[in-house]
């Protein structure tokens, strides 16, 4: 009998050999916790990708912050902060007229319920890591839905940014973000290693957490690689930030074509409900889901995929000026695909709503993702966004 969480049978096309990642050996690990920052956004999919896959006219997505804890060193850092509650204070002035927290006619709708610092401090009695415990905040890049509110963190919390960010975008930053704290802008020479084709910086010096120079989306854009287990085998979490905005931007790939049968869990939870209700309750950490769906891979390729390909992503890399540099952005996505194809690496991009359908969230860690087979369950979850298995096509059988 077919299992509900696995992609079944052989791929529709012969996969290419996956490039090696050349991750340095180490026994050091970190704990990774995903924080739902309560930042939700909605825009027309065509604004980002030019043309939407059928059924995916609106792109609704959360933003995540990642709490990285090196227990051996006693250091806690945050990778990204989502959007600050008073988002208009960090939004570039030229964009405010296109953004609204209530008007569906706006180019971008946003809803933010709280700040990351409040999430940490509210859970003090249960968990113990507060905003005062954060040694550093790393911005993957300068966009206002990642910077959060640095003023909510004490002066001893350092801010770390990527190469060239301050020169290119320093004028867009809030004074309160940088005033009274150490700001470290890494330079190109601070990335002496290479992992998966990305220049890499060993953040803790013990091989547990690497910052990866991942250009294209913006100047100074970071990704990161966290080693979460070292025995019996090394497993990792790749924090892709905005290297991609949707899983259909890097799946399927030449290394992992669509399988002959695709299994995913259909969801009836929508961020649209949160965005359209200004005083919404705090969102749950998991989706409400229906039974798993099994679809024929060739149906998905032929009837849903815009180029009818089992080896190309559903969406192509956005063009300039949506990205800062198209060539670099496309190259970064191709490198991300190699990470995604390795069984020991779990890819988490900043706006992937499917993570909420499967993974445990803060204060729990995701370190045991490999043992619990979360990756298999996540692989094709993004197909929920497309018109697959719905009234239009009626493509699949359902299994308990």
TrEMBL record:
Gene3D superfamilies: Ribonuclease Z/Hydroxyacylglutathione hydrolase-like
InterPro entries per record: MBL_superfamily_lactonases, Metallo-B-lactamas, RibonucZ/Hydroxyglut_hydro
SUPFAM superfamilies: Metallo-hydrolase/oxidoreductase (SSF56281)
UniProt keyword Cell membrane, yes or no: no
Metallo-beta-lactamase domain sequence ranges: 117-222
Keywords tagged on the record: Hydrolase, Metal-binding, Zinc
Highest rank taxon of the organism: Eukaryota
Keyword Protein biosynthesis appears in the UniProt entry: no
Family membership noted in the UniProt record: Belongs to the metallo-beta-lactamase superfamily.
Xref: PANTHER family: METALLO-BETA-LACTAMASE DOMAIN-CONTAINING PROTEIN, QUORUM-QUENCHING LACTONASE YTNP-RELATED-RELATED
Name the UniProt record assigns to this protein: Metallo-beta-lactamase domain-containing protein
């Amino acid at each position: 009998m077919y299992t509900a969480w696995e992609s079944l049978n052989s791929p529709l096309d012969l996969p290419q050999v996956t490039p090696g990642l050349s991750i340095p050996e180490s026994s050091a690990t970190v704990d990774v916790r995903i924080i739902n920052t309560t930042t939700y956004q909605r825009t027309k999919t065509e604004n980002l990708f030019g043309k939407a896959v059928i059924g995916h006219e609106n792109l609704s997505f959360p933003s995540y912050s990642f709490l990285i804890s090196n227990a051996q060193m006693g250091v806690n850092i945050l990778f990204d902060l989502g959007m600050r509650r008073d988002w208009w204070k960090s939004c570039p002035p030229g964009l405010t007229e296109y953004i609204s927290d209530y008007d569906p006619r706006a180019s971008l709708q946003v809803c933010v319920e709280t700040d990351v610092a409040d999430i940490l401090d509210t859970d003090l009695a249960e968990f113990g890591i507060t905003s005062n415990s954060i040694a550093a905040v790393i911005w993957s890049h300068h966009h206002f839905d990642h910077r959060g509110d640095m003023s909510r963190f004490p002066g001893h919390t350092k801010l770390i940014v990527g190469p060239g960010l301050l020169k290119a975008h320093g004028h867009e930053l809030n004074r309160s973000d940088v005033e009274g704290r150490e700001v470290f802008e890494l330079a190109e020479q601070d990335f002496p290693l290479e992992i998966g084709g990305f220049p890499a910086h060993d953040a803790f010096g013990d091989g547990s957490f690497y910052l990866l120079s991942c250009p294209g989306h913006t100047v100074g854009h970071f990704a990161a690689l966290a080693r979460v287990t070292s025995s019996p085998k090394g497993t990792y979490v790749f924090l892709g930030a905005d290297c991609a905005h949707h899983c259909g931007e890097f799946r399927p790939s030449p290394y992992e074509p669509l399988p002959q049968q695709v299994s995913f869990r259909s969801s009836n939870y929508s961020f649209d409900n949160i965005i359209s209700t200004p005083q919404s309750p705090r969102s749950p950490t998991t989706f409400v889901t229906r039974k798993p769906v099994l679809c024929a891979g060739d149906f998905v390729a032929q009837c849903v995929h815009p180029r009818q390909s089992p080896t190309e992503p559903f969406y192509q890399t956005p063009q300039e000026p949506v990205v800062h540099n198209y060539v670099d952005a496309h190259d970064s996505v191709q490198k991300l695909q190699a990470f995604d194809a390795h069984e020991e690496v779990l890819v988490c991009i900043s706006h992937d709503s499917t993570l909420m359908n499967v993974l445990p969230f803060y204060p729990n860690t995701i370190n045991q993702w490999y043992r619990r087979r979360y990756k298999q369950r996540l692989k094709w979850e993004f197909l929920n966004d497309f018109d697959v298995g719905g009234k239009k096509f009626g493509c699949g059988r359902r299994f308990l």
